[in-house]
Design a protein that fits this description.
α11 (about 265-275) packs parallel to α13 (about 305-310). The chain is globular. The chain has helices spanning about 25-30, 40-50, 75-90, 105-115, 130-135, 140-155, 170-185, 200-205, 215-235, 245-250, 265-275, 295-300, 305-310; strands at about 5-10, 60-65, 95-100, 115-125, 155-165, 190-195, 195, 235-240, 255, 285-290, 315-320, 330-335. The strands form 3 sheets. It has a 7-stranded parallel β-sheet, covered by helices on one side. Strands 11-10-12 form a 3-stranded mixed β-sheet. A two-stranded antiparallel sheet has the order 7-9. By secondary structure, it is an alpha/beta fold. It folds into 2 domains: about 5-260, TIM Barrel; about 275-335, no CATH class.
Length: about 325
């Protein structure tokens, strides 16, 4: 049986109720949204997106940005009320919200449950105390653990977001954060390499030489190891790399850091590169045919043909093709 295609309709409510500004944060610049949309705008966003989604798909509405559960309860209820007709008519199957781990309690969870919220994403960012402190998050690792337990105990799905390359971060700390996210029971995650965005404290630190962002090569290397941790544990990676919003694409708000419009492709290219390199030991200028699962074909060939070109340095001819019998990153190599 074919799995239903999943779509999320995003509604951004940036910088609502955040108690402090993290060093990396300027939600307005990152999301391209300057203020909370009015009720009418939210209806228009939903209607416009639903019209483009194929019938029979699984659809959810996501309230992202800011600190959803820090909004006054009446405003939370109003935002969630807007979605109810779409839930009742079956056009939307669920709601997800993103929030801070220190704004989770029984009263808030009861409200979310009453309005049909299914998934709660927490912006953990790191599960290292030093990194949280240097980043100005304003919460502790224990806050994340406590909130995660409450969310799961109350029947919600848990998402935990993380960032790599924050002040005080190391590759080992980021990998440990990923492993802790798995232990906390998250079913999904997002991985964001830290970027220096205009008008943030991190930009000031960067200009003063007190913060050095990851290179794109390092960011890919860190993410590659983290992706394998999540995949081995069945945690779904919803996003890998920051969404290429207009401001960042055109360089108006991007200052420094490992931003690439195809960051996820770079990471999956490197995972395949490691898998395919052993084939070069038996090259001897022969021909190589590699069968991979269809959805892995582009990553196996590599971004810009990187992996194919690497193999061509050792083999006379190299051909990739898809095999519907293969799953995941399994592959068959025929050297002749």
């Amino acid at each position: 049986m074919n799995k239903l295609r999943h779509y999320t309709i995003p509604v951004f409510v940036p910088e609502l109720a955040c108690p402090n500004r993290c060093v990396f944060c300027n939600q307005q610049k990152i999301s391209g949204t300057l203020c909370q949309p009015a009720d009418k705008e939210i209806y228009e966003i939903i209607e416009e997106r639903i019209a483009t989604i194929p019938a029979g798909s699984e659809v959810e509405i996501g309230f992202f940005g800011g600190n959803f559960t820090g909004i006054p309860m009446a405003e939370q209820a109003n935002l969630l009320h807007i979605v109810q007709p779409y839930l009742q008519h079956g056009q939307v199957s669920s709601i997800r919200i993103s929030t801070r781990p220190d704004y989770i309690d029984r009263q808030r969870l009861d409200l979310l449950k009453r309005f049909g919220v299914r998934t709660i994403e927490l912006g953990a960012q790191s599960l290292d105390e030093e990194v949280l402190k240097l980043t100005g998050r304003g919460h502790t690792v224990e806050d994340v653990r406590k909130a995660s337990r409450m969310i799961l105990d109350n029947g919600f799905l848990l998402g935990l977001q993380m960032m790599t390359g924050l002040p005080g971060d190391t590759q080992e700390k980021s990998v440990q954060t990923a492993k802790e996210i798995v232990r906390l029971g998250a079913s999904s995650t997002r991985i964001y390499p830290t970027l220096v965005v205009k008008d943030t404290e991190l930009e000031t630190l960067f200009r003063k030489g007190k913060y050095v962002p990851l290179t794109i090569e390092n960011a890919v290397a860190w993410a590659k190891e983290i992706v394998l941790v999540f995949e081995a544990s069945g945690v779904k990676i919803i996003r890998l790399g920051l969404h290429p919003s207009e401001g960042l694409l055109h360089g108006h708000n991007y200052v420094a850091g490992p931003f690439h419009v195809s960051f996820s492709e770079l990471v999956h290219t490197e995972i395949w590169n490691n898998l395919l390199k052993p084939l070069t030991e038996n090259a001897a200028e022969k021909n190589l045919r590699i069968a991979v699962a269809g959805h892995q074909l582009n990553a196996a060939v590599g971004y810009g043909g990187k992996n194919r070109d690497m193999l061509k340095r050792y083999f006379h001819r190299v051909k990739f093709y898809s095999d519907p019998a293969l799953e995941g990153r399994a592959y068959l190599a025929d050297i002749c």
